[in-house]
Design brief:
The complex is a heterodimer of chains A (about 450) and B (about 170).
Chain A (H helix, E strand, L loop, with lengths): L17 H13 L4 H27 L14 H12 L2 H11 L9 H22 L6 H5 L16 H38 L2 H10 L7 H34 L11 H27 L8 H32 L2 H12 L3 H13 L7 H4 L2 H27 L15 H24 L5 H7 L3 H4 L2
Chain B lengths: L5 E7 L2 H13 L6 E3 L7 H4 L7 H27 L16 H23 L20 E6 L7 H10 L4 E6 L1
Antiparallel strand pairs in B: 1-3, 1-4, 2-3
The chains are: A mainly alpha (about 450), B alpha+beta (about 170).
Chain lengths: ~450, ~170
């Protein structure tokens, strides 16, 4: 049977039994939401409301509501888009790549991380859609649909179109993967509802669980499906940010035209995704009293991934500079000097401090096992990653080839408002998820509760 | 649903005991209807003598369908239906078509496999399962034995179950 190393810490603490897992996780689904939940939900709805107002104004009046100008044609919207897509990388990475590597510690965190991924990808997708101006025509313009112009098809040579396919496939496959994981857990809630005599809840959760029964044959197929989905999602998750980075890398703008963008963006995506998972999970574990399931050991392992990816990002920044000098292309050299010492120096140094220096603090065991410092640093990392995208996008654009075209970018209330919109949506969606869905994958966690053969040792 | 079916249920709470029990019960020539567990038990499918699932083959076929559809679509649209000069490249050049081809391969493979899984496992949102024991999604493994497919009497099967480590032996009629 399963052999567990005595050197490794136990993944689930508190001597939980299989029955305790159902009890602990289902409790928050079955109970009434707390005051704190309502307060957080209210705040999210206020943010969402403000965002919907600014978005409507933008759609009504046009993109001129934003602070864009002729020189800086891409700014906050694409920064936010890339930032949210990056955050959306942790969930599928945790559930797919860590499943292939048989990392059992993923089991306590994959459900919430995948939910976060799905909401983050929705947030990301809103920006290019709004930027199209006429949102309702977006699908018509972006998908290869027959039209009255001949048909004039979409351009399959364009990285922007690859993005459409990459993001929509990533969203769909992540959603399916997440839902497949939820099915057995919905059945747990259904059967508890039957025992409690709550017919409405039983019917709803039975529909959600597709009449799951948990026979050995179904479990065998289920495991095969999960493994193949993981195998498919692994290259998928790496392809998404690769393709996002090609939006920039295939252009001829100095500062964007860089061959290291794909791996550099993927590392950055995992880096910021794990940071966001930590921010959310540290709150979730406290509010729902899940300290025995999401332990300090889980936090420490995630922090180690943050050190690794943060260091890759740091090396990528240095490599870019080295190549700009070594390549001897004056435009490229100017772009990088301007990035460091030009008008946007503050954004650059903010990015360097938050992304390169701050994660190095996790080398100290005291810091990476402390909840307070992890929470603070996880937010710092995401601030840094937002600035990374801002620096790449705006600092490369604002000095055009003609000095008469040089300009600066100043965001308007509508730029800010649409960023707030995504925060409102993200937190509202996560709160609804945490209330109505089991936040921890019960079936997987139950399978690592030690069985009798291990207890005897 | 089948009417008047009588089942004997063995209730287990430990997967190791369950695995040995499955071997023992099958060794005595008793046919097991199915074992219901709250989580996947490794080795249970082999102990029950199930053939390996062919879902990976389905995933592969759906994936290849995605690959071919994507390539045919792009080559036909940009190469034949409306050729356009983009960056001075060939009308239908393969490298820029790879990202979309890859994405559609993954998309069709994933969706097709999951749909196949749902169909072969008979999973529908409006279907209520035959619930032998509500604890089978909580913390108990339930071994269900259909009396109509077994020659042994109910009492004998019960004794075999008890003997192989079942905590409880119950019966259930549908």
């Amino acid at each position: 049977m399963q052999v567990s190393s005595s050197l490794r810490e136990s993944l689930i603490t508190g001597g939980k039994t299989v029955g305790d897992v159902s009890e602990d996780i289902c409790r928050q689904v079955e109970g009434k939401p707390t005051k704190l939940w309502w307060m957080a939900f209210g705040v999210s709805l206020v943010l969402l409301g403000f965002g919907v107002y600014t978005m409507s104004m933008t759609l009504w009046n046009g993109i001129g509501m934003w602070g864009l100008n002729k020189t800086v044609g891409w700014a906050w919207d694409i920064t936010n888009f890339v930032w949210w897509v990056g955050i959306g990388h942790a969930g599928t990475l945790i559930s797919a790549i860590l499943l292939l590597f048989r990392q059992k510690w993923r089991m306590s965190i994959n459900r919430a991380a995948e939910a976060m991924t799905i909401f983050a990808v929705i947030c990301a997708a809103t920006f290019p859609l709004i930027h199209m101006g006429r949102l309702w025509l977006g699908f018509y313009w972006a998908l290869p649909l027959p039209n009255a112009f001949g048909s004039l098809w979409v351009n399959f040579n364009s990285p922007l179109l690859w993005d459409v396919f990459a993001i929509s496939t990533y969203f769909t496959v992540s959603l399916v993967f997440w839902y497949i994981g939820l099915i057995p857990d919905f059945a747990v809630i259904r059967d508890r509802a039957v025992r409690m005599g709550n017919k409405t809840r039983a019917t709803i959760y039975n529909a959600l669980s597709f009449g799951w029964q948990g026979g050995a044959k179904t479990w065998m197929r289920y495991e095969s499906v999960a493994l193949i989905l993981a195998g498919l999602s692994t290259p998928l998750v790496l392809s998404v940010h690769t393709i996002v980075s090609m939006d920039f890398a295939t252009s001829v703008v100095p500062g964007w035209h860089t061959t290291i963008f794909p791996p550099y963006f993927v590392a950055g995506a995992i880096f910021s995704g794990f940071a966001m998972v930590l921010t959310l999970l540290l709150i979730t574990r406290k509010v729902f009293k899940l300290e025995d399931y999401i332990t300090i050991y889980h936090v420490e392992l995630m922090n180690i991934i943050i050190i690794v990816t943060g260091s890759i990002v740091g090396i990528a920044y240095i490599t870019e500079f080295f190549i700009a000098w070594y390549g001897q292309v004056p435009a490229e050299q100017y772009a990088f000097i301007n990035r460091m010492f030009g008008p946007y120096w503050w954004a650059y140094w903010c990015m360097m401090t938050c992304n390169v220096i701050s994660p190095q603090l996790f080398w100290f065991k005291k810091i990476r096992t402390s909840l307070v410092s992890t929470f603070v640093l996880s937010i710092v990392v995401n601030i840094g990653m937002w600035f990374e995208r801002f620096v790449i996008i705006v600092s490369s654009l604002h000095r055009d080839y003609l000095p008469s075209s040089w300009s600066m970018f100043y965001p308007t209330m509508y730029d800010v408002g649409e960023y707030v919109l995504t925060f409102g949506f993200f937190f509202a969606a996560f709160l609804l998820f945490a209330k109505f869905f089991p936040v921890i994958n019960m079936a997987e966690v139950k399978s690592i509760i030690k069985s009798s053969s291990e207890k005897k040792h | 649903m089948e009417s008047n079916k009588n089942f004997v249920l063995g209730v287990f709470d430990d997967e190791d005991v369950l695995l040995h029990a499955v071997e023992k019960v099958r060794g005595k020539g008793v046919k097991i209807h199915e074992v219901y567990s709250p989580f996947p038990v490794h080795g249970l499918d082999e102990a029950l003598g199930y053939k390996k699932t062919r879902l990976p083959i389905a995933a592969f076929i759906f994936g290849m369908t995605g690959t071919s559809l994507a390539l045919i679509m792009q080559i036909w649209m940009l190469g034949y239906d409306w050729p356009m000069i983009i960056g001075g490249k060939n009308f239908a050049s393969l490298p820029p078509f790879i990202p979309v081809t890859f994405e559609l391969t993954v998309l069709l493979s994933a969706l097709g496999m999951v749909a196949t899984f749902m169909i072969v496992s008979d999973m529908k949102p409006y279907k209520w399962p035959q619930q032998f024991d509500l604890r089978s999604t909580d913390d108990k493994h339930i071994m269900a034995i259909d009396l109509s497919t077994n020659k042994l009497a109910k009492a004998d099967i019960g004794a075999i179950l008890k003997d192989s480590g079942a905590q409880e032996v119950n019966d259930k009629n549908f």
